[in-house]
Design brief:
By secondary structure, the protein is an alpha/beta fold. The chain contains 16 helices and 11 strands. The structure holds iron/sulfur cluster (SF4).
Length: 360
């Protein structure tokens, strides 16, 4: 397929692999931030094309994985209400909460619908004025503009039966949390290309300078990832710590300023809890006071929900690059994609799920 297959060319991959071998003299630990990159690395065996000295560790950039259990339980409670049509992207429907998942709520008669855009949920709100329509607004900076647009449009059109259950998280604070942890092993980052398409990459320069780590904005195809690794290793070997852009066909330094404008109209930065990691200061979006009427958490007043993660699960350490999935005793034994015990086995972009599929 044009514009995709070129980025999987085996000859060019071998060339990049040889280049990485040639420039690597010391051991380095590099983290790919995004779950899509993790999935591609494991699926295409990119780690097997690297010298033993290069270790890739997998980051927290899978939005389904890091959505906290409490938020899943809130979604289940709202979706079970008879006056609600609960809309979500499909990948959230089988994420287990404490007492089931959204699919089981649907099986029990809840009106749970898969949509492809929050604007589809807005249309459902327009067509069903006697129902409350809730969209599960999950994800990183990438999904924030469309979610912001939906709320903005709802307000413009005077629709009051629409709200968002917001669980947005932000990449740079998570990178800082990893780098400032006493367990940190990460020496260089492949930053998530799609996040930078929206936000640009200027906010990474202070992180690179403060922690002395190279950060390479990287795409998702095998050649993107290999080139991103080559750029990162080159900097590490030369003692540099700059922000570089491998994904120049999509990312500009300033990002998409129109999308950013819309985000800042509708969302403000707040602390957020990350599944498996815990609360990270200023690491998520919430609706601004001007848009609070569209906040499903306030509208349905669910109170404080307390949950308990499985004690056997190491996903917090995996999401911080400290452990690998096969180091978990539960991996492929008591924890499988059908019966996930933790965050990173839930989504196909989660590291445990990718290892289960391609590396068992
Ligand atoms: S294999 Fe399962 S239990 Fe182990 S870390 Fe991964 S998600 Fe958690």
């Amino acid at each position: 397929m044009k514009y995709l297959d070129e980025y999987k060319d085996p000859k060019l991959a071998a060339q990049l692999s040889r280049q990485i071998y040639k420039i690597t003299t010391k051991p380095w630990v590099i983290m790919e931030v995004c779950g899509g990159q993790t999935h591609a690395i494991v699926k295409f065996g990119i780690d097997t094309l690297l010298p033993d000295k290069i270790e890739l560790v997998h980051g927290p950039g899978c939005p389904v994985c890091v959505t906290p259990l409490e938020m899943i339980d809130r979604a289940l409670a709202i979706a079970a209400r008879h006056d609600v049509i609960f809309c979500s992207f499909g990948d959230m429907l089988r994420v287990p909460g404490t007492g089931g998942d959204l699919l089981s709520v649907k099986a029990q008669g809840g009106d749970v619908r898969i949509v492809y855009s929050p604007l589809d949920a807005l249309k459902i709100a327009q067509d069903n004025p006697k129902k409350e329509i809730v969209f599960f607004a999950v994800g990183f900076e990438t999904t924030a503009p469309a979610n912001a647009m939906a709320v903005y449009q709802a307000r413009e059109r005077g629709l009051h039966n629409f709200s968002l259950l917001v669980s947005h998280v932000l990449v740079p604070p998570a990178m800082e949390a990893i780098l400032s942890s006493k367990n940190n092993r990460v020496q260089g980052f492949l930053a998530a290309g799609h996040v930078c398409t929206v936000m640009g990459y200027r906010e990474y320069s202070p992180i690179a300078a403060k922690y002395k780590v190279p950060i390479v904005v990287t795409g998702f195809e095998p050649l993107d990832i290999l080139q991103g690794i080559a750029m990162c290793v080159e900097q590490l070997e030369e003692g540099q710590y700059d922000v570089e852009n491998q994904y120049a066909r999509s990312v500009r330094a300033e990002g998409n300023v129109y999308a950013q404008d819309l985000i800042t109209k509708v969302f403000c930065v707040t602390p957020r809890k990350w599944r498996g990691i815990g609360e990270i200061p200023q690491s998520g979006f919430s609706l601004t006071p001007q848009y609070r009427d569209y906040d499903a958490e306030l509208k349905f007043n669910l109170g404080d929900i307390k949950t308990q993660e499985s004690r056997d699960c190491l996903s917090g350490l995996i999401l911080q690059g400290v452990k690998k999935p096969h180091e978990c005793p539960a991996f492929a034994v008591t924890c499988t994609p059908e019966h996930p015990l933790g965050a990173t086995m839930v989504s196909s972009e989660g590291a445990c799920s990718a290892y289960y599929r391609y590396k068992r």
